[in-house]
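Good day; I would like, with your permission, to put a structural problem before you. What I wish to show you is a protein chain and, alongside it, a tokenised description of its three-dimensional fold. Thank you for your consideration; the sequence and its tokens are set out here:
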Amino acid sequence: MARVVIENLAKQFKGHKRELTRAVNGLSLSVEDREFMVLVGPSGCGKSTTLRLIAGLEEPDSGTITIDGRRMHGVQPKDRDIAMVFQNHALYPHMTARENMAFGLKVRKCPGAEIETRIAEAAEMLELNGCLDRRPEHLSGGECQRVALGRAIVRKPGVFLFDEPLSNLDAPLRAQLRREIMGLHERLRATMIFVTHDQLEAMTMGHRIAVLNEGELQQVAEPPEVYHHPANLFVAGFIGLPKMNFLPGTLLRMNSDLIFNLAGNPSSELSLRLDAATKARLAHFAGSEMTLGIRPEDIAVSRSGVSIDRPALKAAAEAVETTGADTYLHCRCGNEPLVVRLNAGENIRRGDKLDLAFDYSSACFFDQATGKAVG
């Protein structure tokens, strides 16, 4: 069973001026046997360093890594039952695709007949049969990355590690290889840990997503959970394109109602009376400064004066962007910008006065002091 367990992992590096930069800070994470785990976050968040620590290419300052119940402290990379695919395919330029795929097996003194069998199986899986006798300079970027995948597959490791393997490819090829890697996981039934800064890759590929920022784990959960129930403001703003809208304000109790009032805007036009279900879950936060988070698709729009069935905020349309299948309205409530995903056929123009009604069942509330989700 190839289960990977990380406990309290820490790693720091010295900068140019010998200052210490903490790349990974107290990370604890379990990747289950045969799981496809995606580590996602902005550049410099520690995700690639974490992968290199698992692979044994870096030594942790503290904490432990176990693979299949075996502690990896002092274990060489070649003895860890892992195979790694890098961002740049890292093929030997003087070797053919076949020789690149065979190299690691030859180093491990695998019998020649078995090497050929494994290469043939991987080449069939990756549609590389016509490329095996060509060197990297005569292969396309996608073919080179497939050879790198094949080199990992022939190892038959317990754990596959992918360090942003698609980031150097163009969009259509990225989408194609993304599907191929997911298909490989289904066929190989191996444990895979995939690093990316691309939230689309994370959302479409991962059984679970681990969101990192500044070396710390922010949330780990299945993609729908991360999208609809982010643990904090960072996750809410990082996952989703366009990102979640944020409105800072205060929860106020008025008679039997709970009101969300936008910060610095006492006008009733910039206050929302919360529905019964939201009021019940936030009642004990009355008087607190909160940030309301709402996805662009969870906002209904009508022109001012047109009846709408929910309490609404007044807004002004500033721009409309059409991307083909989707149209996005950029508007402003008080001093706060918002993006709304419009329904097909909406005819809204810049300068229109609007009412915006929120789907409270999809709204998130965050404590302004800690940034953590509440309610």
